[in-house]
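Quick review question:
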């Protein structure tokens, strides 16, 4: 069971798309201009039609020779709803991955993030399991890096902010990977636009920092790029994306029919990365890991483990963090008096508060210089939960606190 930090507000419930792929959106809910923009974005081509009334669209690939949609340009004509209804039904019945992606874009107003990898494919365009898995892994790492950058600016996050950043990804929808070469994520406007904006800025900043290093040999541009959202987590995602390919691209495109984000750059060409960028990306990641400073914190947490090698003296304590730091757990070493206070606080069902410095080494999982341990009063419901946890682990804690 996980518990929200004491000072953290409840997160939003993940919104569910209206409708299903078997039941396309109602024609009256669809803007013809948005549908046309989505078709163009996902590779469909307009091949004629009555000017000013409707266009004839065909899908990418071999199906383009046998399938077409008639899409009205506006609602100015009486037959526009009929044409929209027929087009939506045809999209829902199409086997083309691009048709499904158009329906997702119509159902959930979303910014889109797309990845391409230049990798060899097998018979019929199929990809090996590992190639497709690598694409999905890189995409998730990159989305998480973007979400982390909306929480704070840091060269290295470690375990910090992972809980809230992970919650931000729950509303993101992901399309099917196409032969391990292409993947699309749909980031809902209401909950995910800050992620899309930050990732868009970070990708361009990373590209500029790489180019600067390859031209001058200096890594200084990566320091400035932190403010744009570049981090060790992003460089690792880019390494995963590019490794084993002849090149990779990432593009962020704003939802059609919605205003561009305030302060956000207009989407341009996809940002490209090549195998020649890998040494620079790895060096930048190592640099971020080395230089990220420790952070002074005052943590409130529940004691979940205690251990010391002798009957007396200092011991190690592990806390489940409730407030004071955006991490799930932290480990610290306490002197004999603070260790005793921590054990007694747990025995009576109370969390403790402690001061120290959160060390970057190991991913911000350890508190150094810990001191000033004091029990913290909580409401009855939380105290009952802590007491239940104690009863479930009573033998362990009696042994840990006695030092036998």
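Suggested answer, residue by residue:
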């Amino acid at each position: 069971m996980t518990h929200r930090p004491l000072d953290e507000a409840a997160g939003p419930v993940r919104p569910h798309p209206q409708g299903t792929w078997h039941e396309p959106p109602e024609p009256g809910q669809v803007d013809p201009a948005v549908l046309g923009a989505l078709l163009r974005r996902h590779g469909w081509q307009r091949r004629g039609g009555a000017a000013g009334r409707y266009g004839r669209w065909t899908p990418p690939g071999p199906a383009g020779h046998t399938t077409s949609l008639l899409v009205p340009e506006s609602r100015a004509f009486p037959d526009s709803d009929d044409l929209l209804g027929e087009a939506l039904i045809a999209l829902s019945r199409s086997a083309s991955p691009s048709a499904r992606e158009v329906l997702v874009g119509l159902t959930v107003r979303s910014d889109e993030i797309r990845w391409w990898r230049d990798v060899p494919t097998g018979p019929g365009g199929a990809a090996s399991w590992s190639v497709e898995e690598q694409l999905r892994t890189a995409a998730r790492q990159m989305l998480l890096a973007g979400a982390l950058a909306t929480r704070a600016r840091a060269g290295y996050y470690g375990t910090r902010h992972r809980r809230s950043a992970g919650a931000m990804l729950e509303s993101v929808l992901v399309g099917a990977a196409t032969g391990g070469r292409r993947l699309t994520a749909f980031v809902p406007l209401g909950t995910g636009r800050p992620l899309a904006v930050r990732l868009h800025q970070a990708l361009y900043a990373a590209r500029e920092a790489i180019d600067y290093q390859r031209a001058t040999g200096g890594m200084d541009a990566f320091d400035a790029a932190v403010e744009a959202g570049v981090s060790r987590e992003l460089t690792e995602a880019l390494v995963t994306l590019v490794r084993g390919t002849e090149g990779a691209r990432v593009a962020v495109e704003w939802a059609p029919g919605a205003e561009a984000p305030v302060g956000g750059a207009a989407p341009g060409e996809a940002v490209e990365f090549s195998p020649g960028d890998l040494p620079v990306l790895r060096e930048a990641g190592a640099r971020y890991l080395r230089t990220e400073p420790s952070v002074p914190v005052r943590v409130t947490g529940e004691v979940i483990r205690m251990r010391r090698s002798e009957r007396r003296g200092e011991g190690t304590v592990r806390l489940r963090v409730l407030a004071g730091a955006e991490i799930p757990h932290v480990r610290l070493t306490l002197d004999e008096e603070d260790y005793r206070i921590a054990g007694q606080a747990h025995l009576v069902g109370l969390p403790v508060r402690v001061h120290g410095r959160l060390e970057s080494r190991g991913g911000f999982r350890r508190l150094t210089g810990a001191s000033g341990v004091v029990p913290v009063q909580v409401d009855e419901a939380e105290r009952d939960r802590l007491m239940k946890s104690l009863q479930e682990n009573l033998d362990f804690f009696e042994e840990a606190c006695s030092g036998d």
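Why it works: The chain has three domains: 18-107, 108-292, 295-402. The longest helix spans residues 189-216.
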